[in-house]
Design brief:
Blueprint lengths: L7 H37 L11 H9 L13 H4 L2 E5 L2 E5 L4 H7 L11 H26 L3 H16 L4
């Protein structure tokens, strides 16, 4: 059985590269994933292909008020723009102080509002991208090379920015 050997100098260099890669990847991936999740959620707002269409009476009322007729969860952009990304405890949180978000995500029977789960849909859509980021992060740590990860993150964020509606 062959023995794998590595000189102390080569081992020290490899360890230094892995350590630097771990520092870069932790901050880089956490913030990038947070931005991508937020973009994915906000892209759901107003997308009738992803959310249940509005009732006819609602569409008529929206048109009367000068809004587009059938853009679920989107009038002025106020609710969508209330979503914020915060970095906390080694992770991130997408949050809003607008209580209407809970009503719209889960539905609100007293006002006959059906669920329009923009947060859930946004997270489901971005999950394959996050999985790829995690895979590339592990590769970066194992190899001490963050370039493939950096390239993928840049491409993913560019793609997310190009999908922003309104």
């Amino acid at each position: 059985m062959p023995i794998i050997s590595m000189s102390a100098r080569r081992y020290a260099e490899h360890s230094r590269r892995v350590w630097l890669a771990s520092l870069v990847t932790e901050a880089l991936t956490r913030e990038a994933i947070g931005r991508l999740v937020l973009a994915s959620i906000t892209n759901v707002f107003g997308d009738v292909s992803k959310l249940a269409p509005l009732a006819a009476a609602t569409q008529t009322e929206r048109a009367r008020l000068g809004y587009s007729e059938n853009d679920p969860l989107f009038r002025s952009g106020e609710l969508r723009n209330s979503l914020e990304l915060a970095m906390r405890d080694g992770g991130f949180v997408v949050a809003t102080n607008d209580e209407r978000m809970v009503w719209l995500e889960y539905g609100y029977a007293p006002h006959n509002l059906p669920p329009r789960p923009a947060i859930w849909i946004g997270i489901q859509e971005i999950t394959p991208v996050v999985q790829r980021i995690m895979y590339l992060t592990v590769q970066a740590l194992a190899r001490g090379d963050v370039q493939p990860l950096v390239r993928f993150l840049a491409a993913a964020e560019t793609a997310a920015a190009s999908q922003v509606r309104y």
